[in-house]
Design brief:
The chain is of the alpha/beta class. The protein has six helices and twelve strands.
Length: 249
């Protein structure tokens, strides 16, 4: 098990690595930056930088962890990348099914491919299916997952780079919001995050505010730890109601 600093998960599992940019949320990809760093350090898996790769030797990693764990799947890639082989994706799902004591958070910027894969398949009960909605230009991604028969369906509005406007959260169980970090981070306005929070409250959807990132609620750039995660003076770290095992933090 590889522990993670991601606030809403306990560990990461990366059976694939590498990706390519598909929308504005990818502009300052942290995973690409990390991959280049690992490449420079001589990490064999990243000898080709951020090139997409399927790593069969990682398929059984969760099976070796007997402690119930909330996994974020593919923090360094996208499970529904165009170069993903269906047979390998099937093997990933087999691992998920064979480890019902774990919960798996699957997030994609390619929900059309997620939908195409799951539309005629049984979705593992311990798989959370999510998509990234970083701007109003990609709100249509929500429609591609809302009716999938998953235990938990969720949205990651991170990095939130503009106002999403009115949201139809029908079928959605959880929404995460966060600002961008890093040298080229784009600021997030407080009213954008508050609008999402209010709509989650109105539509009975769990709301999790991760962080402000490089820019604070006052529009000042500083260390993200100093900016913290207060929204409108409060901490919001809610999780969806699970039909299975609840995460322990």
């Amino acid at each position: 098990m590889k522990p993670t600093k991601i606030e809403w998960a306990e560990a990461v599992w990366n059976p694939t690595i590498g990706c390519n940019k598909v929308s504005s949320g990818c502009n300052n990809c942290y995973a690409e930056t990390m991959a280049r760093r690992l490449q420079a350090m001589g990490n064999v898996d990243y000898k080709d930088g951020f090139k997409f790769k399927m790593l069969k030797e990682r398929l059984d990693e969760p099976k070796n962890n007997k402690k119930p764990t909330l996994y974020f799947v593919n923090s360094m890639s996208d499970l529904f990348h165009e170069k993903m082989e269906i047979s390998f994706l099937d093997s990933i799902m087999e691992t998920i099914v064979q480890t019902p004591h774990h919960q798996y958070q699957i997030l994609t910027k390619r929900p059309h491919r997620m939908r195409g894969y799951f539309i005629d398949k049984n979705i593992p009960e311990n798989a959370w299916l999510g998509t990234t909605v970083e701007s109003y230009q990609v709100k249509n991604r929500i429609d591609l997952i809302r009716d999938l028969n998953a235990t938990i369906k969720w949205l990651s509005c991170e990095p939130l780079i503009n106002n999403l406007g009115k949201l139809n959260l029908d079928g959605i169980d959880w929404v995460i919001v966060g600002g961008e970090s890093g040298f080229n981070a784009r600021p997030m306005k407080e009213e954008w995050a508050i609008s999402i929070r209010n709509q989650c409250n109105k539509q009975n959807v769990a709301f999790f505010f991760k962080q402000w990132g490089a820019w604070g609620s006052d529009g000042v750039r500083r260390n993200k730890k100093i900016n913290g995660s207060l929204l409108d003076g409060k901490i919001y770290k809610d999780y969806p109601n699970l039909k299975l095992t609840s995460p322990t933090f």
